[in-house]
Write the structure tokens for this entry.
Amino acid sequence: MAILIAGLIIFLGAHSVRIVANDWRNAQWTRLGEARWKGLYSIVSLVGLVLIVVGFGAARAGSAQLWLPPPWLRHVALLLVAVAFVLVTAAYVPRNGIKAAVGHPMVLGVKTWAFAHLLANGRVVDVVLFGAFLAWAIADFASSRRRDRASGTTYPAGRTGATVATVVVGVLLWGIFGEFIHRAWFGVQPFGA
């Protein structure tokens, strides 16, 4: 569990700099330049992510069960993860209505993904992993919206075609990931019986 917690501190810590020290972040960006800042940020994030994956894998087998979620919550979680995939896709498709409406669809997608996984999993290790991501996403979304209001940021109106493409691509990615990748990476088949 210590490796997982270390990974969460490193990964979510790096992703929390804008929440807790935005002025410092901006100064470093200026001092180092965009490429160096992004390079260092990516290395730190990758180290944290590797520790999360290794730590979660190691902690899963011996993790105590806090509660046993009812089977119907699995279906709710599957639908919420589909929504999360659409939200994350919306972060990358220009001029879609979802981004225009929520402003920060990536963070909202992480929040939805983490909440869905908390519903469907009741072990201590699950609460640590998904609870940490949910708490971070709640704080980051609120901080991002405050920054938007303070700076008067508005998002361009979405186009119907881009919004439809966002939903279609997001649902396709959800289906592909759930059917072919999730089991190979995590040992769980979301669409299985």
